[in-house]
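Follow-up to my post from last week.
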Amino acid sequence: MNELERKQLQIAACKLRMGVIEATHGAKAGHPGGSLSAAELFTYLYFKEMNIDTAKPKWEDRDRFVLSKGHTAPGLYSALALRGFFPVEDLPTLRHIDSYLQGHPNMNTVPGVDMSTGSLGQGISCAAGMALGGKHQNKDYRVYTLLGDGELQEGQVWEACMLAAHYKLDNFCVIVDNNGLQIDGDVSKVMSPYPIDEKLRAFGFDVTVVNGHDFDELEAAFEKAKTVKGKPSAILMKTTKGKDVSFMENNAGWHGKAPNDAEYEQAMNELKAILAGLEA
Amino acid sequence: MAELKKIATRDSYGKALAELGAEHDNLVVLDADLAGATKTGTFLKAYPQRHFDCGIAEANMICVAAGMSTTGLVPFASTFAMFAAGRAFEQVRNSIGYPNLNVKIGATHGGISVGEDGASHQCCEDFALMRSIPGMVVMSPADDVEARAMVKAAYEHEGPVYMRFGRAAVPVVHEEGAPFVIGKGEILRDGDAVAIIANGLMVAEALEAAEKLAEEGINAMVINMATIKPLDEELVLSAAKKCGKVITCEEHSVIGGLGEAVCSVLSEKLPTKVVRIGVNDEYGHSGPAGALLKQFGLCWENVYEKAKELCK
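User reply:
Got it. Predicted complex:
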């Protein structure tokens, strides 16, 4: 990608992070850490990769995205709002009573959400079902799903991987956000999922390891995934949990905690500074 | 009722799927390594391209079905009741029920008539589990005719459906072509002394008991309540009003199934004495289906005894 496009995506990712902070601050709850680590991924999918139409969220030939790690709904909602599926001003109503922005993604209330998720391990199976359905009906669309590295501890994830390889779902791309932290701490200490790349290869995936905050690496991986035939693809993203908010970075405590007013100010100021630098 | 033909409703399930498959290209069937037992093998033979074996991974299969349904397909996910309703409960709840997806669950081998496999495979809790999911239709057919009609009705219904079929052959009590409507019970025999509300293989037992009761001057009403949810409350209330006494019969735990559904309606709207016949909060065990059913009181003799006692 050229410099201009890269910068535009970086600006979008920064705004997406601001949306995450706005949403979780407004909710006084929610999951900022894993939303921030996947900000570039959400941005890449919704602003470059996916063939979607905000005027027709249920368009039958659209590419699909399933947020298997559903707790990072603030990241997905921020992407959808910035992309134009619903007003950005609604983000702070996240988790409020009677808000359509449910704590975890709801496909029936939030425009642009392709599957209701939240219970870890299920989204990847649903996404595999969409890919299988697409292949069966000779559709060209692709299906993407994002998992957390802690989520790999769910046995169902590997059931889904087996099925994806068995049915040669080359329209299916699994992305793992390897930020290294889960609620109880370091994933390698809680219950190690490593080596993730070797496990996915053994399950029949074409695997690419990338820096999940680098748009050029993401682009190369997604372009490669589209050329893989006869097997599903996986993109293992090395990321920083809480990325770009200094006090949230690499801190498991920010997995599922909202910023208070002072923390909100600080986070927004840090992101505004990054944005100003990008727009300079 | 020895003169009645006997067919296992799992056979009816497989047959109905194959028939429906001819009419509807968007019907697909998923299995978890049990196509031979769930009888979806009949569909597999006819439409191999529309049958997807998911291997021994029921939780995944349920969610794969959910995903497929969002692409315009109508998946029938098939496995034993124990694994569909039991093992995959949370997948059914979160990935089919909550998003209200158009997935049909064909659960075979319900109840203790599974027989020799024993308690690990004798699911007597599926009605309770599935009833607790908002929006879920829960049904259990009495015989072959009703089972086939039910599968067609499930296809036509937009939304999640759970159907429980049996392993053992059971008497066919319906005339071929008998109509079936989701949510409607049917009076198979009118009477005013006691209302026997049954489903599944207990319908034939209830009819047999009613015949014996009639010989002693007790006119029992027999209702086939194939849909447990949504329950035909109107019929329950009118039967209770007419008879004043109710017996429920099901091949399921007395906890959470048809019996409790009937009790819930009556306790709130028309307090009536109800006797529940079912599996009494215990596990089954190995044995021939017929002998087990008798041992657990899931037989006409027990219905007859309970009715006589109630009508004293």
